[in-house]
Amino acid sequence: xxxxxxxxxxxxxxxxxxxxxxxxxxxxxxxxxxxxxxxxxxxxxxxxxxxxxxxxxxxxxxxxxxxxxxxxxxxxxxxxxxxxxxxxxxxxxxxxxxxxxxxxxxxxxxxxxxxxxxxxxxxxxxxxxxxxxxxxxxxxxxxxxxxxxxxxxxxxxxxxxxxxxxxxx
Amino acid sequence: xxxxxxxxxxxxxxxxxxxxxxxxxxxxxxxxxxxxxxxxxxxxxxxxxxxxxxxxxxxxxxxxxxxxxxxxxxxxxxxxxxxxxxxxxxxxxxxxxxxxxxxxxxxxxxxxxxxxxxxxxxxxxxxxxxxxxxxxxxxxxxxxxxxxxxxxxxxxxxxxxxxxxxxxxxxxxxxxxxxxxxxxxxxxxxxxxxxxxxxxxxxxxxxxxxxxxxxxxxxxxxxxxxxxxxxxxxxxxxxxxxxxxxxxxxxxxxxxxxxxxxxxxxxxxxxxxxxxxxxxxxxxxxxxxxxxxxxxxxxxxxxxxxxxxxxxxxxxxxxxxxxxxxxxxxxxxxxxxxxxxxxxxxxxxxxxxxxxxxxxxxxxxxxxxxxxxxxxxxxxxxxxxxxxxxxxxxxxxxxxxxxxxxxxxxxxxxxxxxxxxxxxxxxxxxxxxxxxxxxxxxxxxxxxxxxxxxxxxxxxxxxxxxxxxxxxxxxxxxxxxxxxxxxxxxxxxxxxxxxxxxxxxxxxxxxxxxxxxxxxxxxxxxxxxxxxxxxxxxxxxxxxxxxxxxxxxxxxxxxxxxxxxxxxxxxxxxxxxxxxxxxxxxxxxxxxxxxxxxxxxxxxxxxxxxxxxxxxxxxxxxxxxxxxxxxxxxxxxxxx
Amino acid sequence: xxxxxxxxxxxxxxxxxxxxxxxxxxxxxxxxxxxxxxxxxxxxxxxxxxxxxxxxxxxxxxxxxxxxxxxxxxxxxxxxxxxxxxxxxxxxxxxxxxxxxxxxxxxxxxxxxxxxxxxxxxxxxxxxxxxxxxxxxxxxxxxxxxxxxxxxxxxxxxxxxxxxxxxxxxxxxxxxxxxxxxxxxxxxxxxxxxxxxxxxxxxxxxxxxxxxxxxxxxxxxxxxxxxxxxxxxxxxxxxxxxxxxxxxxxxxxxxxxxxxxxxxxxxxxxxxxxxxxxxxxxxxxxxxxxxxxxxxxxxxxxxxxxxxxxxxxxxxxxxxxxxxxxxxxxxxxxxxxxxxxxxxxxxxxxxxxxxxxxxxxxxxxxxxxxxxxxxxxxxxxxxxxxxxxxxxxxxxxxxxxxxxxxxxxxxxxxxxxxxxxxxxxxxxxxxxxxxxxxxxxxxxxxxxxxxxxxxxxxxxxxxxx
Amino acid sequence: xxxxxxxxxxxxxxxxxxxxxxxxxxxxxxxxxxxxxxxxxxxxxxxxxxxxxxxxxxxxxxxxxxxxxxxxxxxxxxxxxxxxxxxxxxxxxxxxxxxxxxxxxxxxxxxxxxxxxxxxxxxxxxxxxxxxxxxxxxxxxxxxxxxxxxxxxxxxxxxxxxxxxxxxxxxxxxxxxxxxxxxxxxxxxxxxxxxxxxxxxxxxxxxxxxxxxxxxxxxxxxxxxxxxxxxxxxxxxxxxxxxxxxxxxxxxxxxxxxxxxxxxxxxxxxxxxxxxxxxxxxxxxxxxxxxxxxxxxxxxxxxxxxxxxxxxxxxxxxxxxxxxxxxxxxxxxxxxxxxxxxxxxxxxxxxxxxxxxxxxxxxxxxxxxxxxxxxxxxxxxxxxxxxxxxxxxxxxxxxxxxxxxxxxxxxxxxxxxxxxxxxxxxxxxxxxxxxxxxxxxxxxxxxxxxxxxxxxxxxxxxxxxxxxxxxxxxxxx
Amino acid sequence: xxxxxxxxxxxxxxxxxxxxxxxxxxxxxxxxxxxxxxxxxxxxxxxxxxxxxxxxxxxxxxxxxxxxxxxxxxxxxxxxxxxxxxxxxxxxxxxxxxxxxxxxxxxxxxx
Lengths: 169, 640, 465, 477, 111
Description:
heteropentamer; C: 19 helices; 76% helix; D: 2 strands; globular
């Protein structure tokens, strides 16, 4: 077997991501779940780096692992949730959920295997400069300027919403 | 001449309208004058018409188109020819007498009901005239149903009594069964020939297949069975005695019940062409004649005896038709009309005197109280028994002779029936008029002879019953003396050509007449003797006589075999098939929706986890559906 | 484009008006004027007058259909605010914010009716959904409202995840987010239908389909609908059940119109399965409901089943029909809800005897219900008519039409139950204060429904104009 | 102009009636309105000649539908029936008190407008519109002013008929897309060409709709319940006129549009119709409720009309045409009497009635005449119709006729049983204090009796009126 | 790296997210699982963008194909952030009223 360093890193990060994702599910303590999820995000950022999507790698870390997850953590701590208070579904429901999810995965995987046009297609690793912030910025502010502006509406509404919901009457 | 034709039915119709609408305001005298007068007017016109026909032959008068549509029309037309003019005379003549009689008989009724009675009676005459005068089967059918209606109304005249109403309904329904046959025959004729007018139908009869003719004639005969009370549809007639007695005389003896004979005589050409039907008619007629006679032997109600006697005599008429003696049948219709009307009116007179007591066991010895009635009744009995030279002898003899020519067996059975006739008529006569009065003393106190309005018709009819037969004297007695046959010959000419002729030797005929007459006289003497000192039996009868007293249990048989099962079946349909079956199915759909609703809402469990689970599973199913290599597509396309 | 921009701006204006004045009726007044302005702006856009003309780089496609749809949606919102404005004011303190959110939703609606890229679709859906999560939970003290909001949010986010996976898979196959771009790796000439399209593209389409089904509450992805509609404050349910649902359909139709190339016959199986299931669940479950509000939620699912016919047929008639359906369905539902939220008791029994105490309300409700059940002379008839006609026009869908018709007969059951309660049963319904203005605007609404029902050309001619 | 006014007069006056407050005023107003309509209808039936499109204006161009009306013989006759019936009903119910009478009469007039529209429409979509317009007011009438179980029963009736009309709508749409010029006009429908299979399938969609309306066995179960529970005025409209909608539709919209299928399935349908006749007659025979009895009797009569139509013979059709009119008159007359009995005696049970002939002689006579017309006695109007229909049926199939003929007997059985139990015998607790009918009812019924007898003796005007419709069908198929 | 590997990886993560949604009762954890799903999508988008880029690059050396994929990821992150703010606000509101984040207790609305 002839594996380059990239390959090895890919598999390592993948294994980490999947493992941590599973740990998110199985951890009884919500705080642990959050921490495992942060690990997943780190692994995914690692993948972004491998794919030479540096901008996204950084944003992912800052926005997701940093801001969003901290928010989660705050909320959980605010509510004082821990392993003891954590409600558990009964085993059959869990099994049903796992089997359905598994079937869903199976379906999509089998479809991917049948997608012959993707045979031999490779994702460009390390190389390729589209993921660089310079290129992304150029395209974002030329072709994608309207969606960019539209997201401001989204933010506005989210802001108004959060205020309406959170404000004490 | 033609202008007169429509006058015949219009008088009774006017009488009906005036009496019907004005029954509350008119006095009884006025009502009876209008009622009888209108018939008298018709009678007078009929006489004019009769002589006109005699001189100039028949004619058809069209009033207007009754139904006219694409390729099909039914004119409202009257045909006055030898046959119908004869019937016109019988109907209006006897009708007038009975109206006259009724004005006394019904005098106890309140004016309103008195008016109603005459209105119905006039309507009946109108319908009967339509029946007879119609120039096609449809007009005949109008009259045919019309007389049925009037019969219904008059049987149920005393509507407070529910038994009478049942009797009325029974009469109407049984008639309707026959009418259906008649109607089907009319449709058949229309379908095959495109016309219902007699002239065209008879002219076109040659184009019909044997099957068609047999079917048409059989169906028409079913109609006749209903109207003329033949087996198996005869049971209504005895029950119809619930009506006022003059009604029985007019409708259920003299006129309406002979409509079947008129119709077959009218259609004689068709019947001559359908020998199978003819045999059927002969057998049914004979069977009815003998069967009804057996029942009459043991009846105790004066009117019931006469009713069964009527059924029996009608049977003879059908026998005559069946063996091709059309003239004989018509002849018998006429004579029967005289003597049977007389018998009924006589019975009415008796009942009138007895204050509506009809049981002959409680009568007896009325001879001294009611001489006119007794005498006329006796004459009628002799006439019906067939004693020469009374009218019944000639007509019955003509039929029996013809039957013998066809098949001697018919003759012997017919003679047996004639003997029974003699027996029951004289049993009736003896029990009523001879011997001692068996009723209560109070009843005896009230006995009286009837007023002139009642006796005059009796006398007139008695005369007719005696002399009425003389227009049809058989050839063995005198050449060309049968003036009726001569008169009617244009009607039956075509049939006569087709029918095969046997003739009997004169000696044979003399022998038969003599033998029969002697036998009948013996029976009469025996009967009078046997019943002269009648004492009502105390014990229940048994065996054959019980069977006869109960009319062979035919009513009960019909009830169990037809009425009850139909009722039960209808009940089944109403309560089970309709309610739980069809409606249950309809409501079941509604219930199913409700049930589905209760079950489906459980899917909406309120649990987000379940919702998402179902969504994921649905997605998996979607994938499965899409990627199953087109098998489903195949099925789907088939569905479309 | 006008509508998107103006509605976003109006949202901001409403936010500021909330700061500047606390007078609730003023907010409503501003909102009404804003909506009129928006309507005018959109109409101007329809006839070629544009406020801005930015290069959208193919992300948008402004077609007649979208423009008309916007106009109808805005008009429906205007009617909605006119009829139910009072109730919005009573729902909470943040009236201006509610109006702001409604304008943001309209922005999302306008985006959904004109998008040409999956990215915009995604943004549009989110812009539309996020304010709705809030509006659902607007009655903060009410546990039902909270629950509905959370349910809606969780399921909505989940469906967003599905939507995104679908978009990604399509992107993987086509290399673009623009609608109708062919597969990047398979030359169009090869093979039959399935061979021509990539498996992952189809997988993506199915996922998109599922996500859109969720948005328009088609079975079996409808589960959120009854709970959310029931839990949300009535006045916002009315908004959600009408304009939002219609917008979902507009987007759905637009999305799949572009995909007809890759959709094989299997697509019809899937769609007819969804249609039948939707009709079944919507109609049958509605039969048993005791609460009118919940019944209307199920009825909206049933109506969605009918609207899906437009997707099944995908011809000119279905587009016209969807417009008409939107108008008819929105007007009728707004009418019924407007009356419903005036009632103190939301159950069927709460309506007993309404015809006696409030004849005008009962009458207009009856018209609306007749329209919903598709009785001629009301707008609903032509709406249903178009849906059925569009399927039959394509040929082959007759069995589906018959199934739909059978369920339409079932729908009579629950719609007429309300009529029965109002007219044929005795009772003294308690209502909130009914103003003359309210009655008048209801009557106008009813008249509008009848007008469209008698002479639908007023809507349709305009389409052909 | 006349045809459109036949629709507009009741429509407009109906709407006005809603706003009149005084009960007396409303009564006179609607009576006046219906009398004016009657004048117009008479003018239309006997003084207008030109057949063909009576009115044709643009309505829904994008849908290929026009507001076009047509008046052929059958349409004239049925409009006349409608126009005669309504004033008669209004006069007969003058004395009945209805709560909220302005709405009652308003709805009655609206249903009249709908009925007129159905009989006049020459455009399928328009026809469908009026078809429903006639139904909705009746739904409200029955549900508000009906008997105890009115809500459930009327609802069943409504859903049933609505289901039928929806199926018809599906069929209409299908046909629309198969017309040559994409139009709903009658003419385009008559020239449609479908494959055998399509025709057979769509035929049934239509037929079920009409069968429910008529109603034909086994789709009839809504009817007795609905007739029983409705206010009698509405029952009169329903049984006298609304069932004619179904028959009318078969003649106008079914047979000429599906010529092959209607021949192909004629056997089956006639068999159904005849089975229904016998079935309904037998059930009528066992009914104790006089309203249900008349309802079942009506089902039996309609069965015959349906059977006769499907023979597609001149006589059968001609008979069916005039029988539509006759049945309308007869059954409305019967309902008026039944209503009087119910109002006066407080019971509808045959077993609780009796002896009315003594107490109410005028009513008794009218009742008997109506009953006789019901059993198609000669010289009443129904005889001519039944005679022609049976004749047509006979030329189609002998055995069918014989089988159907049983119903003639059964009709006599149940009708006379009814007459007997109502009129004859001794009075019961309910009928002891009975008085005769009011003058209003008397005069209405006398007019009806005159119509019955005149048409029974001289049916030619009706036959001539409808012959063009008959010809148009027989020549087509 | 073959694109299939990325697809498998992302689908796995996505499915784990789904399974998480299905098996947990804590609303916050469920929400986190949804975030996990979004991240899987993000990674897949980037992988696809690089695949397309590599494919087009062969014929057009200065192509920017693939950028839109990465920008999409950017937008997803934006939206996710907005959604989180609203979502957590709703959860907190719920928690304030019921002192629970257990979705099984969300059963006042049913049938």
